[in-house]
Amino acid sequence: MSGVSMRILRPLPVSFLLASLLSACGTTGPSVAPIDNSTLGQAEFRTHQTTYGVVYLLPQDVTSVLDAKVNAPVKQHLLKMGLQTEADNPNLPHVTVVHIHSADPSTPQKMLKALPKPPAPIRLTLKSFYTTEAAKGAGHPWWLDLGIVKSGQGFEDMMAFNTRATAAMAPLRDGPLPRVTGPVYAKMAEPGRELVKTMGVSGVNVMKDGKELRAHNPHNTLVYSMALFTPALQTSMNQLAEQLNGVLPNGIDTTFREVSIVELAFAGNVTRELYRISLVDGSVVDMRTGARVSR
User: Fold this and answer.
1) Contact between 210 and 20 (Cβ < 8 Å)
2) Cβ-contact 201, 243 below 8 angstroms
């Protein structure tokens, strides 16, 4: 959820998006809990219970390059800056489609049922390291990201799927993502606040007047942090990003062939994979059992 551009003025209400989705699917859809936005006016972050997401886990041809050229210098830099928690933070490398928060343990199954048809395998290039904050001036959380080249058919397919998945997943939340509440919500501009209220999260694509409005910024995150993003720390991490851009000036070309439903920690790092869906043939595997399942 980092590095988003707030260009959306008035997203469609969730009720309209859910009604459109159910009408298109010809089904009554899964039951959902009431959505509670009461924490948005509080000074502190909403208590985190469970965040689920739809993501692309990075293929091995990407993770092997990151392992060989990026991960070690990143960890060394974090330790040098005294960021032990960040250095030890577990994560399955991924590119987010959408995240939602829900305390309901049956949410992953509901997500699988509601998930729109995924795109065909996506060809793209991961390129350009940078730091970003959840909201400028909020202090935390912040991230070190590897971006995606924003052109080509693969990028267009990725963005179109985000729009469909956002409409399908947002109604399954019980309220906003904790990391966009409290001090982050207080620092957001009004378009971002509107997305948090209507979608539970900022930085997603929605439809308005038949047109796709894009705020989604797909990326891979290497560092997740709740440490205060002081000017000194920001300068240091920006220097690291510049160093990494010198290591991979041309980025990494790859093809995403799978999308997964996952569980995530507060800052968005994936802690476990629940369902893996093939972009090649649509097959689904329950990653907790290894068994193929139907949707």
Assistant:
1) no
2) no
Distance between CA 189 and CA 116 in Å, rounded? 30
The token pair that represents 80 in the structure block: 């040098």
CB-based contacts of 288: which residues, under 8 Å, 6+ apart? 274
pTM of the model: 0.88
What are the backbone angles phi and psi of residue 203, rounded to the nearest 5°?
A: 75, 35
pLDDT for res 33: 64
Output the furthest CA–CA distance in the chain (Å, rounded): 56
CA distance 44 to 169: 25
Q: Considering its fold, how many domains does the chain have in total?
A: 1
What phi, psi does 114 have (nearest 5°)? -85, -15
Residue 111 located in a structural domain = yes
Q: Residue 179 — left, alpha, or beta (φ > 0 → left; ψ -120 to 50 → alpha)?
A: alpha
Reduced to 3 states (helix: H, G, I; strand: E, B; else coil), residue 185 is: helix
Instruction: Retrieve residue 112's tokens.
Output: 């699988």
Distance CA 228, CA 163 (A): 32
pLDDT digits (tens, 9 = 90+) for 149-203: 999 999 999 999 999 999 999 999 999 999 999 999 999 999 999 999 999 999 9
Quote the pLDDT of residue 134: 96
DSSP 208: E
246 belongs to a structural domain: yes
pLDDT in tens, 92-140: 999 999 999 999 999 999 999 999 999 999 999 999 999 999 999 999 9
Query: For residue 248, what is the domain's CATH number?
Result: 3.90.1140
293 lies in a domain?
no
Cα dist from 33 to 57, 103, 165, 171, 172, whole Å: 28, 10, 19, 9, 7
> Is 39 contained in some domain?
no
Name 293's bridge partners. 284
What's the domain range around 233? 14-23+60-262
